[in-house]
UniProtKB/TrEMBL annotation:
Coiled coil: none annotated. This is lipid-A-disaccharide synthase. PANTHER family: LIPID-A-DISACCHARIDE SYNTHASE, LIPID-A-DISACCHARIDE SYNTHASE, MITOCHONDRIAL-RELATED. Its EC number is 2.4.1.182. It comes from marine metagenome. It catalyses: a lipid X + a UDP-2-N,3-O-bis[(3R)-3-hydroxyacyl]-alpha-D-glucosamine = a lipid A disaccharide + UDP + H(+).
Length: 230
């Protein structure tokens, strides 16, 4: 979006976003945190609130009437929004980034996707065959985390010693994920440190949460850990 704003400043945006989009001056229907729930139980307990947000989001998009609806991941939310929007405003082009894992489950939903998705962007090349089978337009774009790893390879080599084995840890990009996963991951690091002395842990973080994770690692007293972000 940052690049689009520079190259095409006349484009208007409406989003459900967080701090990064807010910093770019993008109007948001509400903050992404309002629909971020981790775990089946929390989703179940908030199901009525989630359904209300789906309807609210779809209605706001229909009112805004954009040329393109671009959704990212979270298929149980974003695709339900896209389906509602497409039903009322079929002229709006719908593009989704991060394909639902149809090769593992819900393969029958491919036919449903075809009815309201115009294009889907894929993380992995093997996904394409599933969408080609149903004549759903798709493009392999690659995984952003893999690209981040390539960018940070030099930094990692400067951080660790040559005799250390590198263990990458991904605690998530959402605060709700980090709150749940970090205590578990810290216990794991402690157990590994009790058994091994040749491991260096790299925590991969968003820029937004980099300092927070560094502070928590420091509080735990870990000497063989580092945090990197793109």
């Amino acid at each position: 979006i940052s690049k689009l704003k520079n190259s095409s400043p006349n484009i208007e945006y409406l989003s459900v976003g967080g701090e990064y989009l807010k910093a770019l001056g993008i109007k948001s229907i509400y903050d992404l945190k309002e629909i971020t729930y981790l775990g089946f139980t929390k989703v179940l307990l908030n199901i009525f609130k989630i359904n209300k947000k789906i309807n609210e989001t779809a209605n706001k998009i229909i009112e805004f009437s954009p040329d393109i609806l671009f959704s990212v991941d979270s298929p149980d939310f974003t695709l339900r929004v896209a389906k509602k929007v497409k039903k009322i405003k079929p002229n709006i082009k719908t593009i989704h980034f991060v394909a639902p894992q149809v090769w593992v489950w819900r393969e029958h939903r491919l036919k449903q996707l075809k009815s309201f998705l115009d294009h889907i962007l894929l993380l992995f090349p093997f996904e394409k065959k599933y969408f080609d089978k149903e004549n759903i337009k798709s493009t392999f774009t690659g995984h952003p985390l893999l690209e981040e790893n390539e960018k940070t390879e030099i930094d990692i080599s400067q951080i660790i010693k040559k005799d250390k084995k590198v263990f990458s840890i991904y605690p998530g990009s959402r605060m709700s994920e980090i709150n749940v996963l970090l205590p578990i991951l810290f216990k794991f690091v402690k157990l590994m440190n009790e058994k091994y002395t040749d491991i260096f842990f790299i925590f991969h973080s968003t820029t937004e949460h980099n300092q927070l994770i560094k502070n928590l690692l420091s509080k735990e007293g870990f000497k063989n850990c580092e945090v990197i972000s793109d």
